[in-house]
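User: I'm new to structure prediction. If I give you an amino acid sequence, what do you actually give back? Let's try with this one:
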Amino acid sequence: MKILFDQWTPDRPGVASNLSEAKNIIPTNVGYLPLEEAEDISAAASQNLYVSIPIKFAGTQYLFAAGESKIFKFNPTNIALDDVSRVTAYTVTDFWDHAQFGGVLIMSNGKNKLQGYTLGTSTNFADLNAAAPAAKYVTVVRDFVVAAGTTADPNKVFWSDVNDETNWTPGTGSQSDSQFIPDGGDIMGITGGEFGIVLLERSIYRMTYIGAPLYFQFDNITRSLGCMSRGSIVQSGGFTYFLSDDGFYVCDGQTVKPIGNDRIDKWFFDNVAPTVIQNISAAIDPVNKVVIWGFQNTFAETYLLIYNWAANKWSYAQTTADYVSTLATQPVTVEGLDIYSASLDALPASLDSRLWAGGQIVLGGVRDAKIVTFSGTPLTAVLTTGDIEQPVNTMLRLARPLIANGSATVSVASRFRLDGDLNYSTAVAASSENRIPLRSVGRYHRISLTPTGNWTNATGVEVEIVPAGGR
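Assistant: Good question. You get back a string of structure tokens that encode the predicted 3D arrangement of the chain. For your 471 residues, that looks like this:
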């Protein structure tokens, strides 16, 4: 019998087939891929970090990061994180958002005026303009910088003049203005593009440019749900992903669709620490076509919840990183590798990794005061089937892992009733013929598999099951 590793659906009973465990792996259309450990790629900043930010302009790649009261710029010559904060100190914050408008990186923290840094020219950030709002959230919609979430107006959206990120004064000759959204509670985040998506606590609006005299039209997409966590919002192309009160959703600007219902939503709420749910982080890994949410679980560990939008599959992982983000690498020469380590074995990634090629998109994040990428040794993966049900009592006597470029260790748990205990046998490694002898009797069997070797894809497992007492 061949069992393919399909959906991970911890919210469903084991007899509904699919996987009951899919840990430390990345879902793909066929099987699952390894996920690597987080490795430092920068020196330590002067304070712990919340976010890392890749920016490219005029052919040059830049990398920034931010902590509770400072903004840093990655220095590729010595991997230091140089303080490029504005001269006047920032108010302490627990959140930063950002947007790129042409050659300007704009940062927001909800405490200070929007901050601007002209790439290739600036040495420090500075207030965009005296009239710019002290907003939490910032994005770009068409040719406008859009901001939202001020302390005085938590449900008001502001936008700059067209093609001018410094003009925030409404009036004759300016298209800068603002819009109060009367229903839906506080704004939790905004995403941009050809149109904007405004996510409030209990509703979602689409923001569309219509020209003078109103400039933008706000249309309600839904009043039945909203966003419960500012950090959960992430955008890929025209799709905005976010966490609502009852699970994960995606919005395309017209409709809102659940993506975790009856699969992982209950598992997430059972595991997330509710007191820090606002501190979720989110990132896009376009190479693997996945959205990744980082969150602290009830044991103060960092979990990653991973969704492949092309395959419509989930997995999860445990990491030492504090927050996740999308990164773009900076070019490093062979001589420059000495900055990281005098030993090739101690490098944060192999020499053929995308990490060393400039401008390559990789999954990254921050850990304490350093920027990290997920480019180290593959994490120990675990895939566990649901209940393999037979009409009579049977013995599971052999397993053959289907692991590309590797093999696996396997343990099995068998029981005669679904309310029986799940006690897994000692894990057994595959022989040179890729055979694992087992002897486990029951009506319901679960197989737990850990890939080994330099494996590249875990596809499934073949098993031999015979009637109990048969040979």
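You can read the tokens as a compact description of the fold. Here is one thing that stands out. Residues 351-356 have pLDDT under 50 and may be disordered.
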